[in-house]
ATP/GTP-binding protein (Jeotgalibacillus proteolyticus), 857 residues
Amino acid sequence: MNIEFPINYFEGNLIFSEDGSCWAYYQLAGYNYDFLADDEKDYIFTKIKAFFWQINLETHMLVVPNFQSIEEKHERFKEKLSGPLKDAAVKHTDDAAMQLENILGKEGTEYRFFLGVKLPKPENKNKNNSFFKDLKEAWKEFIGGVNTASGLDTPEILEEEIERYRRSERRIFNKVHSRIKADPVNEEAIQWLIRRNWYRGIGKAPILKNWSPAYSVDYKEFEDNEVLVRRPLYHDVLRLTEGFVDDSPKRSLVLKQMYEGDEVEGHVAFLTVANVPYEIEFPGEEWLYIIQNLDFPVEVSIRTETMDNRKALNAVRNKRKELKDQDRHAQETGNETNLNVLSGKQEAHELEAHLQKSRMPLIKTSIVLAVSAEDEDELKRRCDTVKDMYQDMMFQVEQPYGDQWLAFNEFLPGAKRYVKDYVHFMEPATVAGGMFGATKQLGDGEGFFIGSTGVLDQPVYIMPNRAAQGIRGTKTNALSAAFLGSLGGGKSFTANLITYLSVLSGGKALVVDPKGERGNWGDDLYELKEEINIVSLSTQEADRGRLDPFAIHQDVKEAETLALDILTFLTGVRLGDSERFPKLTKAVREVAEGEKPCLTKVLEYLVESDDTVSKQLGEHIRSFSELSFAQLLFGDGEKQSSISLDNALNVLQIQNLELPAPDTDPDKYNLSEMLSVAMMLPISSFALKFIHSDRSIFKTVLLDEAWAVLNTSQGSHLATRLVRAGRAMNAGIYFVTQNADDLLDEKMKNNIGMKFAFRSTDPKEIENVLSLLNLKHTEYNASTLRELQNGQCLFQDITGRVGVVSINALFKDLFDAFDSRPPAERLEVSEEEIVPDGEVDDLIEEEPETARSGVYV
């Protein structure tokens, strides 16, 4: 069947069709849906419904999978790599691409959402034209259309007409953006929307870079004036339609294309929705969003026209009369009335009453689905799966015979409705209930790979410094992140992995390791070579005073503040304690203003005081200073901290720390536990000093066991300073903690971007985690958190979208390096979780540089 190619020309987001109409196309970023409460879903539903109620123009909704080449994505990321580890980062990126292709295939799928609106024809500038002039211009348009269709002439577009359409588009954009947050597409997106149709079942459609449709410029007489006219070269747009289409199967099409040097064949079938149930439950039956639950991609094209309330009432009344006549005819002939006729009469009666009451319009809608595959058998399986899925929702889906080529063209932007046998008159609520724009996609779409999500195992990529770059669509500009969950779920593993990949990509990091779990990194992370620096602070005399506030900070006021934070925490002195707090403050200030200040001198000042209260404070502090590892805090004033953070990755460990359990009441801490928690204060302050280095480099501070800092008022204040300074200094603070309650303070919560929530079973903790993620406490959300497997988390990205991600380090050497489980637990599960290829374990020991490929978790 031959039909005219529907597109003459496009510019910006405007498409000029062969029938003389003009369409404007927009793209939706996609919004989070699965973990919203019913009232939140209803809010989105109401916005979409209002759009279709008010737009009063033809629209074209497209849901299309974007087959992203894993190799191309990784090649783009390689262009952004920098720093001393760039060579290692390039090698890792290449290895990761190879591994992902082995696991997921060469193409990753993500859904994109486009909306086309047919613009109203702009009024002629001269409204005083006579009837004969109007008739003359109409005749010119008719003759021009005939000549263009017959190939005798090229289409022409007045320059001022294009400008009028641009003004019209700006008015439409305000409606579109205010209701469904869509933005205008560019010419490359339109090119892709056209070209991709000929590559279904074959591969990723190639894009012509910096290409626009060609046209010539001419002047012509128009209404006694010489006006500028564009003459698009019609065949230039046809360059985007290369390939061969065979419609001989009648219920499907066979596409043939030269792809990567070979002739490749793809198969595609178009399914039409023949019947839509009168009542659709919402939420629960999102008939458009449901396609993302399938394990293969499905495309959808939905064309709508608005029928105002008066015309809709007339149409319903005429339909009711028709059904009534069928019922009467059956009775007169002695036959039983068909059940469809009886139910139709009832539905028509109800719809008429509803239209009269609500004054709503009806939406004339046609829905076409496209399913593609590499071979005919797989195509049949996929088509049957789609039909069965919609049958369960009481939709009737047909695979029309002979209309496949017509349906193919309906997916082209700027085209019209070609298949007219499957049109439905739907309420705006029914159209909105499909949840156009809802997505399961997560992450930044670029950067490094951290895991996969959904039934399609879509790869999840993040770029940790992206939030601060002012990207449109992001909900936060905070660079900090939270890693939450009970023991063994994977929070430390994930924080380690992201920190390592950030450093490899050109950043710097300081990892605070209070439990000493990362001492193996110097040997296991062989790619970092000399750029890793593990600082282990011990009880040896050489480490004395390295965490003394006066050794860490050159600024006296900074040192005073930190010294007071530490001492007030150890002694329990509160700001409102009018007797003890001033004496402690005075002692710190006196020492700070003297020579070689240190905490030991503060202790001596208090003990040697004639004041009884001061002596008691001094003795209290002395009880801590006598512990073996206290010398790190209580220096002698002889030396400054000599900890160097010049390397790309720095790990700061303190030996012999005895951190209490996170749920232990602070009032029940023993001396060692109190001092261990206090140790985290100067470490955090040290991190503050670290992030004030080179602002052009993205820096990461990973605070493991962050609850030890956040549980104290002093530590919470210091953490808030860290995240605020981090945002200004291009640094992200990664809080690894078992307690989400530590981060629920509004000042802290609003300064955290990405959030990774691993399994939790405690009801109160689940409530806190959901609050941190800005999710309502529904049974679905709570059960999802309870039932997460090891290595799975609820991930909230910087756009606010939430979904379940399976974290994957891809390589066994990284898995082993970041695995913090006790050796016995590793042995129990290693055979299930790690799949070696050949003798790669031996290679890792003998030739680590060549052992990456072939091993994945």
